[in-house]
Amino acid sequence: MRLDQISLSRDDKQVLHDINMEWKRGETIALIGANGAGKSSLLKVLATLWKPSSGKLIYPDNTIKQWQKNLGVVFPDSFLYDALTAIENLEFYQKLYGGSDRKRLDSLLQAVRLADVATEKVGTFSKGMRQRLSIARALTHYPSYLLLDEPFDGLDVSSRDIVQNLLLQLKEQKTGYILVSHNLDDAMHLCERALLIDNGEITAESRCTQEAFPSFVEQYHSVLKENNHAVY
Amino acid sequence: MQFIRHTLLILTRDLRVEFRNKSLLLSMVIFALLFQVLLQISFDAKTEAMQELAPGVLWLPIILAAMLGFSKYGSVEKENDAFAGILISPIDKGSLYLGKLIGNNLFVLIVIATSAPTFFLFLKQPFPNSIGLLIVTLLLGSWGFVAIGVFFSTLAQSSSITELLVPIMIFPLAVPLFLACIQLTEMALFPSIGLGQSIWLLLLIAYNILFTIIPLFLFDLLLEV
Ligand SMILES: Nc1ncnc2c1ncn2[C@@H]1O[C@H](COP(=O)(O)OP(=O)(O)OP(=O)(O)O)[C@@H](O)[C@H]1O
Ligand SMILES: [Mg+2]
């Protein structure tokens, strides 16, 4: 997947400027940036939800449908139906992607520790339960690319561990993901590469290794400081 | 095949959600019945005047109940931004349109099945002159109206058009449909020379085909980024 000079405007406001990036199959990338930097917007472009105002997306198999088929998405909104049960939600999304494999759904529910509430309506779920189900929902069709927008949001410590281990497992199986997180430790441990996004531009890039990462962290902090100066 | 499977998937999702909540269909039916009684009371129907008014008294409650349906029917997709989940999936978005069209139409047919008998039984209307024509008109008319309704309300959901504008967009486009429905209904209800019956019927059929086929192909383009 390649982004070539992508810009995006929403309501006359330029949200993304000339983004160039490459996302190889199986690669795990952390997307770091201050609030309002454009992280979620970039993911929405990648998810084909928003059309960039200029620039080109070059899909791995050249067709948008094939890209959509290979993509799983966890956004702050869960995409779940409150009136349906957990298992019905998963079934719906699996069929939407052309599959029907009940075993897969059961094992996903196991993986996110929701097996015993499988037949309860999502409307009764807590925020963390929805978040975990949303992650399972994104995985029903074995996507090879994943977009994760703050997947740890609302999770307690043990749920965090579950999801972190799930991600490490995916990484091992060569499922690539882009992880948006405000937690730099997560970025470091779960990803191979980190991108810093500031005001809609990618301003820094680093490998997530013990040697390279600290200077990236420093850059991130200086961006945050600048933003604070702008505010006060 | 895929297309039909996805159409059915959307349809069963909507019906399942509706039968859990049981709010929309019931309110559509009750609304149509009450509205019809209201119309009847306000016109204090005398038989001669009724010949002019009857098609309107029959259709207006159905049309407005259908409008109620457009705004609420897709609302399951609003919670948790589930509509975005559909948009980013690889399905042909035409199946989304067709699935919603069939489901919405099913609801409107149920409204018709309750309010049309009321029209004849309780409002003491004479038995229609041609029941066959009446049924055909009701079926085609409701399908056509629901087709444009679903088309615009779903588009509105995915763009910045607010839902309040949907009726304003639907009504002008529905004028030919209304004209044909009212004319044909009058011919069906009362003995008449039946002049122009086939032309109106043709218009109605053409309208239905147009507004079923065009969105079917257009949807994937319009909803795709
Ligand atoms: N629908 C929209 N209409 C107008 N502007 C928008 C819209 N969505 C986002 N923006 C603007 O785009 C900019 C980037 O927003 P975005 O949600 O991508 O930030 P973010 O990096 O995800 O922030 P956060 O860390 O708070 O989630 C913000 O300045 C926001 O005001
Ligand atoms: Mg965000």
Automatic annotation (TrEMBL), chain A:
Pfam families: ABC_tran. It comes from Aquibacillus salsiterrae. GO terms for molecular function: ATP binding; ATP hydrolysis activity. The keyword Transport applies. Residues 1-224 form the ABC transporter domain. The keyword Membrane does not apply. PROSITE patterns: ABC_TRANSPORTER_1, ABC_TRANSPORTER_2. Keywords: ATP-binding, Nucleotide-binding, Transport. Coiled coil: none annotated. This is ABC transporter ATP-binding protein.
TrEMBL record, chain B:
It is a multi-pass membrane protein. InterPro entries: Cyt_c_biogenesis_CcmB. Pfam families: CcmB. Its main location: membrane. GO terms for cellular component: plasma membrane. Keywords: Cytochrome c-type biogenesis, Membrane, Transmembrane, Transmembrane helix, Transport. GO terms for molecular function: heme transmembrane transporter activity. It is found in: Membrane. The chain crosses the membrane at residues 23-41, 53-70, 101-123, 129-152, 164-185, 197-223. One of its GO terms (biological process) is cytochrome c biosynthetic process. Belongs to the CcmB/CycW/HelB family. This is Heme exporter protein CcmB.
